[in-house]
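Bump. Still looking for FERM and PDZ domain-containing protein 4 structure tokens.
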Amino acid sequence: MLTNVFLLSLQLTGLQAKVHYLRYLSELRLYGGREFISILLQGEKQTEVTLLVGPRYGISHVINLRTNLVALLADFSHPITLIMEASDAMNLACLTAGYYRLLVDSRRSIFSMPYSNSAEDTGE
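Sorry for the wait, here they are.
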């Protein structure tokens, strides 16, 4: 697909290329946050959700991707329980901690990375 876009852009004037690029961008879902796929735990119930995390949305559930409908799950000062891939979980924790410090309390940290200096962790 990238090749098709590149070949198409070679045949366009500068103005046509800009219009094509803006049309392409307008079709993207831009929330001003980051999306995560996760399983939300609510008591015994497990629900697969698409999360949106950002300053405008807090931690929100994307209800409908076509209409961009979202519902707030939690702000940055309330905990929720999720199951997700380890790398996504780390990214979500760091992002949430950053927004917490930015929007709730700049003097308090809600997440810290464990530090270990043992030979096992360094591969020695």
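The chain has four helices and five strands.

Edit: fixed formatting.
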